[in-house]
Amino acid sequence: MARRRASSPQQARTYRQQGHADALRFALLLGLDNDYRNDKKAKKDVIDPSGDAHSVKSGQKKWQVFLYRRSRFETDDGFQALNGIGSLLIHCIDTFPPRYEDYENSKEASKELLRTPMRELKDRFQRKALLRAFLMKAFFNGGEVNYLTALHEDNYHVFLNRDVVHIMGECFTVENSRGNPPEQKVLFRYNGRNVGELEMRNDSPQHYREVRFNINKIPVMELLWGNIQERQHHNKTIVVYGSAVKTFGNW
Q1: Within a 13 Å sphere around the CA of 8, how many CA atoms are in the beta-carbon half?
Q2: Residue 245 — left, alpha, or beta (φ > 0 → left; ψ -120 to 50 → alpha)?
């Protein structure tokens, strides 16, 4: 299997700049000014005129839901309240030595240790209520963010947080990766396809001992479209789905 290449600092900077530009475009479509309100740390990319927050996702292939270091799981009460999920994510990080140089000399040993907390995470996520709580925290900072707004083919698609979490929670099957060694990731699957991956990022000294949660764009969009019948055009560029039809645009 070919080794996945890490993105360069310039590529990462380009992705961030494009994300900011796509969020700005959405804000302007809502009638906001260039200096629109947001709160990146809390996942509030755009705060609309009614005061509701949107997590705007515009990646073409994948969305990075989060990329957190140990300190985030230690200090964020939302993760600590998830019936041991926060502690297991810290356990994943702690299977790797503090120094990247030491990891390079002991990769196989660390990966073997990682199997235990990754397997325990998979087992915990068999409980649908806990899976939904994790998804609400991961995508919407525990409900502080109201909408997932996804840019696809030049349109913004707006989904209410509880619709997203309910559909994912009901439809996902949760497994561990099978590679060599196995149990290096938690996979969120639907209809035989990987929709999301929870994994360690250890590809450079700058990105070492971090937990990353990625979502594959097309499978998750198809999942949401396939399970939400009601949709309405807010304007020619913004499409609103499900429960969001009643809550979005009331300003």
Answers
A1: 3
A2: alpha
> For residue 53, what is the enclosing H or E element?
strand 53-57
pLDDT in tens, 192-241: 999 999 999 999 999 999 999 999 999 999 999 999 999 999 999 999 99
CA–CA dist 232, 239 (Å, integer): 6
In terms of DSSP bridges, do strands 53-57 and 147-152 run parallel, antiparallel, or are they unpaired?
Answer: parallel
List the chain domain ranges.
Answer: 51-247
pLDDT, tens digit (0-9, with 9 covering 90-100), for 47-59: 999 999 999 999 9
Question: What pLDDT, on the 0 to 100 scale, is given for residue 2?
Answer: 40
Q: Which residues contact 91 (CB under 8 A, 6 or more apart)?
A: 116, 117, 120
Tell me how far apart the alpha carbons of residues 90 and 79 are, in angstroms, rounded to a whole number. 10
State the pTM of this model.
0.93
The CB density around residue 77, as the number of other CB atoms within 10 Å, is: 9
> Strand runs (DSSP E) across 69-170, as ranges?
147-152, 155-160
- Residue 178 CA: distances (Å) to CA of 97, 109, 205: 24, 17, 26
